[in-house]
Design a protein that fits this description.
Elements (H helix, E strand, L loop, with lengths): L2 E6 L6 H12 L3 E6 L6 H6 L4 E4 L9 H17 L4 E5 L1 H10 L6 E6 L4 H4 L6 H9 L2 E4 L2 H9 L8 E3 L14 H11 L4 E6 L8 H13 L4 E6 L5 H10 L6 E5 L4 H7 L2 E4 L8 H8 L4 E4 L5 H4 L7 E3 L4 H12 L3 H19 L1 H9 L3
Parallel strand pairs: 1-2, 1-4, 2-3, 4-5, 5-6, 6-7, 8-9, 8-11, 9-10, 11-12, 12-13
Helix pairs in contact: 3-4, 4-6, 8-11, 9-14, 15-16
């Protein structure tokens, strides 16, 4: 049995990473979580399963040579003191540290990359830190074939470094929808209306404003709808202005972050996701867990690897998300049996591609 370190900047929970840690622990490995932040929420959860948790927080600005040098030195010392044999680092701040530190530890180090083209969209792909991370990396785990091809073709990373393994989920970690709360949401927002739900960070590449446009166009067609939009972010004030200008106060509701997200998914008729920035989208999987039809953009993240248009999802053109989404909703919203079948098919695809039991064997074959 091995000593396995999960190295990250996590504070919040991460169900795919938790799934792996718990699964490895159950197999008899010694599993450790080390976060560059306090781990306020994720670490108490992990401790319930006997997973050792540590934090190493460096006060002040989280960037710069001295900041990362201190983390690198601590990472090296930690791995050697704990006799770590395998490291899975997650997200860019941890990946940069692990990519440099791996040359001074005995452990086998895997960098786990959770994005495809975010570095290009936000223009940090030319940063020295970013380029060094993947140039120095020995092994990189990516969560979709799309990510692997992007790295090979756009970033010129050697294919032999890159391993595609889907995200792994123990879907039992998700709470079941509360039937009473779902009924309350439907009664409050969906009386004689379709309920559409969206969930994302309110940023330009997630495009939450397009969901409001969908509601506006449906209103022009006299299709009564309401949108429950979960999330927060830099666009929030702009979204409020748009809602006001389009006179959609009764149709669009910004909920902020909610704890009972599964209740919201379960209450909807369609889940909308116009995002251009995904690797392996969590919220679409969550909607699929409760058998809901989703509308997403083709060519984004790993959607094309497990979603089939009009079989287990509505997959629409990126540039025409609003128009095509309106058309899909207008055409299919009364076909309840078809929508239920689509939601059931999505659920099956998610369980097949991302369930713990089907993904874990790929990690076992690494070592």
């Amino acid at each position: 049995m091995a000593v396995i370190l999960f190295y990250s900047p996590f504070n919040q929970r991460s169900r795919d990473t938790e799934t792996l840690m718990i699964a490895f622990k159950k197999e008899g490995h010694s599993v450790i979580s080390l976060s560059q932040q306090e781990g306020h929420i994720i670490h108490p959860f992990l401790q319930q399963f006997g997973i050792e948790t540590y934090s190493h927080v460096i006060p002040g600005k989280r960037s710069g040579i001295w900041y990362f040098l201190k983390h690198i030195l601590y990472f090296i010392r930690f791995c050697n003191q704990h006799k770590v044999e395998i490291v899975y680092s997650h997200l860019e701040p941890a990946n940069f540290v692990a990519s440099l530190g791996q040359y001074l530890v005995k452990a086998k180090v895997y960098l786990c990359r959770h994005h495809i083209n975010e570095s290009n969209l936000y223009q940090f792909d030319k940063d020295l830190y970013y380029r060094l991370t993947y140039q120095l990396a020995k092994k990189i785990i990516v969560v979709s074939n799309h990510a692997k091809q992007y790295m090979i073709e756009k970033e010129k990373i050697p294919a032999k470094k890159i391993i595609h393994i889907n995200l792994a989920y123990n879907f039992d970690l998700y709470p079941k929808p509360n039937e009473n709360k779902v009924a309350d949401l439907k009664a409050k927002y969906g009386k004689n209306k379709l309920i559409l739900v969206g969930a994302c960070r309110f940023t330009k590449f997630k495009r939450p404003d397009l969901m409001i446009d969908v509601i506006y166009q449906l209103k022009q067609k006299n299709i009564d709808t309401t949108l429950l939009l979960m999330g927060k972010g830099e666009m929030e004030e702009d979204l409020k202005v748009k809602i006001s200008n389009l006179h959609l106060h009764e149709q669009v509701h910004l909920t902020g972050y909610v704890e009972n997200v599964m209740d919201y998914y379960a209450s909807c008729d369609f889940f909308l996701h116009p995002s251009l920035l995904e690797s392996s989208c969590v919220v679409v999987k969550e909607a699929g867990l409760v058998h809901k039809p989703v509308i997403v953009c083709k060519g984004i993240g790993d959607f094309d690897e497990y979603l089939v248009d009009k079989e287990n999802a509505f997959v629409v053109d990126q540039e025409n998300f609003v128009e095509e989404s309106v058309k899909m909703i207008e055409s299919y919203h009364r076909q309840k049996d078809f929508l239920q079948t689509m939601g059931n098919n999505l659920n099956k695809a998610i369980l097949l591609n991302f369930s713990e039991v089907n993904v874990l064997r790929h990690y076992q074959s690494l070592n």
